[in-house]
Amino acid sequence: MAKVTVDGIEVEVQEGINAIEAAKAAGVHVPHFCYHPSLAIVGQCRMCLVEIEGMPKLQAGCSTPVKDGMKFAVYNEKVDKARKGQMEFLLINHPLDCPICDKAGECPLQDYAFNFGSVTSRYGDYKRTYPGMDRTPIGPHVVQNMNRCIHCTRCIRFCDEITETSELAFFKRGAATEVGVFPGTPIDNWMSACVTDLCPTGALTTREFRFESRVWNLSSTESICNGCDVGCNIFIGQQAGKIYRYRPRVNPEVNDHWLCDYGRFSHERYETDRVVVPKVLRDDYLGISTWGEAFDLIEGAIKASTGDKIAVIASAQMTNEEAFLVRKIFIDELGSTNVDVMVDPIGPIRMKSRTEWFEGTQAGPNYRGVRSVGIETKGRSAESLMDKGAAGIDVLYITEASFSARTKDPAVIANLRQAGFLVVHAWEDHPLAAVADVVLPAAIFAEKSGTFTNLQGRVQKIHQAYPPKGQALADWEILRRLEARLNPAASLVDGDDVDTITDELRQSIPFFQNLDWKEVDEFGSIAATAADGGAAQVP
Ligand code: SF4
Ligand code: SF4
Ligand code: FES
Q: Would you say the pTM of this structure is higher than 0.85?
């Protein structure tokens, strides 16, 4: 360890980390552009200059390792003057078109221009431009405006060092230097849009989010990507219940600073007609009902049956809390012998933590978690109900109409419909819901809170970004109400919330007992390790 002093603040840090990170530990921000903690250090932008006691010249903080006893200044007259000079150079050619730039509001160059820039330039009005390169698609997701580039090379290093696809490079020399792709090789790797997060200016933006919303109009909520079982940490950016984007949220243990393109844009699936009211089948017509009427029918059908004739297909999109309620109601209380969780295979999607690569192979975020509460293939499996039919089953309860892409196949729908009574939770207008006896409007993951368990066995929290649409409810709330109907002694209490169920889960299921719940709040907590990468281990 090393004791260093930053702007008079003494802090103990790991010896050898750079001055930017040491200053961060002391709560001091060192302005920088080219430095990124997960990319190689190139010392290129000279924005991170600091004054180190005993050294005559200013040093680049990104490439200066700290030693015990080192003292340095981030903010003093000498450093401020150098930083202002550097900004003047960087802004010689930059268009400063923040009012029409999508990065405005979250742009380091804009922030530093306000803090360290000058309102006048000693270089006159002439600016070098890149004619024809101000809105250039350089890949399926990335649009480039070369006029805004400050040549920091973060985007180039990402493609060289992380995806190792090397689509981007510098072309030409001197003031004409430009970032570009080689002819015929667009930036089309599976994590390509990460370069738009890395770019410290509006030079790289995504085709999908460009001009959709000003960033300050969006609310941001911490959650977990539900595209696969890696469980990348995200911010959901939404306004009035419309999701505009997911941004990576740093978790060194899972996705570091990254998201794959599939996951990043997977919120587009929610731009569809939503199911917003309960519906019941009356006289061959599936019509709007009240929640009470829908529960009356479900209660009647379940009470007229026996456990061996009740089947449940759970979805890997359910939270641990919701899966726990499925287990409690259907396995523990009703004695159902036909309970399964089904998810489609995906990818594999490669994702890099700070230290290792993972491969997402399940198209749901919580396949491991749902099984960890005890929902495994028992009796008639989901596959067999889909392929061979549900004849002989009195009540088939499906917790998400779109639990598999195959549920849009008419043959699969016909097979599932063989059940005497079909209950479906649905968030989208779905052909399987269209043939159900009861359709219950369900929230999507962004509309609820709870926990997911990723492929490592890491339990991570999702938070509600906005309330469910219409009369839709989170699956846990639907199941809680059903539980109270079937067993009036069960606890449906005023103020019942997902935390109550998390507590029940922690008390009942060994998998969750040893977690550090403070860690769950931050980077997640590992419930168990599995030699197979976490694919199969359940208690
Ligand atoms: S495009 Fe952005 S990330 Fe790439 S070199 Fe230019 S400023 Fe840096
Ligand atoms: S790797 Fe999986 S969890 Fe991560 S962003 Fe992609 S789809 Fe989402
Ligand atoms: S951040 Fe240090 S030189 Fe760019």
A: yes
